[in-house]
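hey team, just a heads up i'm posting the complex here instead of the shared drive bc the drive is being weird again. everything in one block, sequence lines first with there labels, then the predicted structure for the whole assembly after. its two chains so it's a bit long, scroll down
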Amino acid sequence: METEKNITEKQLHKDLLAPVFGFSRRFWIAAGVLSFVLLAAGLGFTWMLIKGLGVTGLNRPVMWGFMITNFVFWVGISHAGVMISSILRLSRAEWRLPLTRAAEVLTLMALFTAALHPIIHSGRPWRTMYWAFPYDFSREIWPNIRSPLIWDVSAIFTYLISSTLFVYIALIPDLAIVRDRASGIFRSIYGALALGWRGTNRQWQLHGIVSVLLAALILPVFVSVHSIVSWDFAAVTSVEGWHSTIFAPYFVAGAIHSGVSAVVVVMALMRWFYGWGKYLRPEHFDAIGKLLIAIALGWFYFFSMEFIFGLYSLEGPEIALRNMQIFQPPWSIFSIVFLLTAFFIPVSLLLFRKVRRNILAMFFLGITVNIGMWFERFLIIVPGLARKTPFTFDWGTYRPSIAEIGIVAGSFGLVFLGLLIFAKIFPLVPISDQKEGQAFKGEIQIGRVKIKTTLQD
Amino acid sequence: MPDDTTPTKTEYSSALAPTHIQPMNKAGKWFWLAIVLLAIVFSMGVGGFIWRWQSGWDDRPAWGYYAATFSFLLSTAQTAPLISAGLRLVAGPWRRPLARPAELFAFVGILNMLWFIPLLKVVPDTQHRRSIWFDSPISFQIWETIALAILISCGLCLLYLASMPDIAAKVSKAPGKQGFPVPLGLSWRGNPHQWRILKLGLVVLGAGYIIFLTFQQTIFASDFGLSLVPGWKDALFPAYHIVSSLQAGTALLTVSLFLLRQWGGLKDYIGLDTFKGLGRLLLVLTLLWFYFWWSSFIVFWYGRRPEEQLLLQLFVSGPIRPLFTLVLILNFVLPFLLLLWSPIRKSIAGPVIVSVFILSGTLLDRIRLFTTAFSVTESGEVIKNLPPTRLPDTADIFILMGGLAGMALTYLVATRLLPVLSYWEITQGKILESEKQFGLRKVRMVAKPD
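-- predicted structure starts here --
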């Protein structure tokens, strides 16, 4: 197996800039397939625009369905970037280096996609403009400034802006590398984007300070985003199963769980699609696999607490809800799928080093976790609404329409197409970080083996 | 091959020259004076307990301070080994000097077990209140006792296993340190198989300690807190108790390391790096403390249910408000503002001062939570009236002081039984470190074996 040690700077540039400077057939095929998937969402959305929300499966009392589930899911995925980039940067986990940009871009795409969902869900997107603007403070009519729904918008857009800044700042040295190799109009564009980067000591110093500052400052935003999304539910006392104090950390832990798993999927795809096996090696999958075990255990603790304390008070409506989730099909099937795929299968397999170092296995485990986490959000949102009232004659159910399924499928197409296009324009593996990693790399001989060293200070 | 990265016999012996192990074998007059003073205060605590006992088991509000003391010991001394176990799992290089001082706190578990038994008599069975055991008779007594016993055993096993190479390296044969520990290390020869077993054992016991402590704290917070107050349904409270314990456990460890450094003759071993690492950890845990508290508060605040309003009055905004404000200042405001400032966080004195704030705040927080929970005597679905706030009487003060003195006394005794520092881990750390010239300056590199 080729190791990172053998890579020269020339080779590094050649490998990592190949998608930017060349067009492969694979790129067009992938872009075509993803566009086709995106088209499904387009068709579903257009149908909904023409006919109204009646074409969806939403009906009283379940007025939040697939689109809100998908909104929460993509907000969750968006936690990947900060987890990998910011937290691992602050904790000096060196193995993060090749993954950071992909994780950050996944954050951007996921967040952008998530933000679209409430607008789509409104059924008449243009109306959101005059619902929201000009903001009505004086009469205290809806939208209420104290509503978590308003915090949502603020938190998501703050996160989107800070994540964009985070990606851009980290990208500047790489933009200069691309600029130096581009020609014609592209040279001017990359040059403008590189902001006159020359790689002087002063520039590196400032870049380092800004990166660390942003990494630290983005953390509160990161935590607030999914906490606030969770309070959309937890602040509501009228829906069984929602009014729980644990929702904020439970949602954040779940978001990190699904986000990091999504990064594993993207890593495997990058390795296969671009042939970057030298950069995304089994040791990286091993490290992220270990991280996933810890995250999954933390998340499962919160899940258990949420469940146990749901039943704790032994109130009739709560028991009816849990009974529905666990024993009544199809909810019971969803619950089994959720628990197996989000926790039991991945965690029991990730305990084995061989599994953690097997790219194909990790790819499937990443997908498995996300299937489970999608169902988790669905099981939180829909059953609670279906059993919203204490009167059994007012209970309802939910069956998604083809339009909603199309929109959900299309959202995956949108995120991955976004990643693909980003990788066509900008280097998806941070070249300057790779070079820095090479420069600081060392080995020491202990006993009979050589061990890699990393920078401590 | 984990044994490949362990120190060779020569490297190990040279690192453990008698001059290096000298400090931990010293026990000057100040040490014995501290032992005597702590023993006196601890005896006062025992006296306070007997005094309280004579008033009977049925007066639950009277035992609130006793429960708060137990919770404080559980949150600090019994959480400290977790810090070491957790950092060992993530292989933080700065954690090596704190490993043994943290694990020595496992000894305090024995005291805590004794402290716990009377609480089982004070708290009523779960059949007449909401509980995570759902009407199952005497299950809370059984599970609480088993969980605490397993936790303590796991902590002691972890301590013993991690100490074995040091005991066997004839540490115990240094001047003035012969006797008890020698037979414990006899079987250790440091062969590859033993090193492999040791490392695997440390990972398993470390992970086990984290899991058992989480379980123990969860059921304790639930049975002795939530469950005593009708209508207090807060799924986050056990997790809050754990996070708060992590903060307090780290703080206790920071203070202990400072004392060992200043008066234990370990200046050469416990350096700035360790305090810098602890400062960072304290900042993170301080933020988490606030996040967990806030997440719970905001849901009750927004919920606006009558029972939730009353619960907020009971624990936050009613007569308890001054105490709560103090807790908020000591556990969050001061630590956050101080640790945010890099020169303070990256010093030795800064994290120590912050730790003193945190320990004081946690003690007050436990008093706030458990004396309040114990003071509620009404039963039913939801709480309807605010119980009177209970101020400590002389017995309560004796119990509180006795508990703290007992913890310190047990720890000091433990330092006489086992080596205070994990020399084999420190030695290994030195072997794994190297320097590299980078540009005009040398940088420190560290190897992280699997």
